């Protein structure tokens, strides 16, 4: 099975002046980078499907040192319908030439989880500001506390 991970980096969209807020985010970046490195070593396609404008996402990924991990980056300015509509996920999968049913999305919000699930994608929730509710958990294959745990999940799946 080919696996793709679509990452919504919530902390980027919540920190528009990313360069001044790097220190508190280093633990998240480190866990993200370890997970992304592992997936790249396995030849897994990686994309970003974000509600944030693409130019800002690209800038933040560059400043965070994560840009080169991604094969496709799509922002909310490339779709007519934002999350929870599945359009952004379906477009990202099409751009990566992957079957949504063979992909994973890491999400942290109800709208993102609903969007990915509606697109037929396997969803992993990593709660950030919003804890996993029963309604959200039902739409996910699992809920993990952070990207370190998501990495462990992928190691078992691959």
Explain this structure to me?
The protein is an alpha/beta fold and 158 residues long. It has one domain (4-157): HAD superfamily/HAD-like (Rossmann fold). The protein has seven helices and six strands; from the N terminus they run βααβαβαβαβαβα. Helix 2 (22-41) runs parallel beside helix 7 (147-157). The longest helix is centred in the first third of the chain and has 20 residues, at 22-41. It is globular.
CATH class: Alpha Beta
Domain module tally:
1
Q: Could you tell me the radius of gyration in angstroms?
A: 14 Å
User: Count the strands?
Assistant: 6
Please give the largest β-sheet: 6 strands, parallel
**Could you name the CATH topology?**
Rossmann fold
> What's the overall geometry?
globular
For the biggest β-sheet, the strand order reads 3-2-1-4-5-6
The share of residues in helices is 40-55%
Order of helices and strands: EHHEHEHEHEHEH
**Uncertain stretches of 5 or more adjacent residues:** 7-16, 18-26
- Quote the average pLDDT: 81
Structural classification:
alpha/beta
Mind telling me the CATH superfamily name? HAD superfamily/HAD-like
CATH second-level architecture: 3-Layer(aba) Sandwich
% residues in beta strands: 5-15%
Spatial separation of the terminal alpha carbons = 9 Å
The total count of helices amounts to 7
């Amino acid at each position: 099975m080919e696996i793709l991970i679509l990452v919504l980096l919530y902390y980027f969209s919540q920190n528009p002046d990313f360069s001044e807020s790097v220190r508190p985010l280093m633990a998240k970046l480190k866990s993200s980078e370890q997970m992304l490195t592992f997936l790249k070593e396995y030849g897994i396609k990686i994309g970003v499907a974000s509600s944030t404008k693409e130019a800002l996402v690209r800038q933040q990924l560059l400043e965070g040192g994560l840009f080169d991990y991604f094969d496709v980056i799509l922002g909310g300015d490339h779709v007519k319908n934002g999350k929870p509509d599945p359009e952004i996920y379906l477009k990202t999968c099409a751009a990566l030439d992957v079957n949504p049913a063979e992909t994973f999305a890491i999400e942290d919000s109800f709208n993102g989880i609903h969007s990915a699930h509606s697109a037929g994608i396997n969803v992993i929730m990593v709660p950030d500001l919003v804890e996993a509710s029963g309604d959200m958990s039902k739409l996910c294959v699992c809920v993990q506390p952070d990207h370190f745990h998501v990495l462990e999940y992928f190691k078992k799946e691959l």
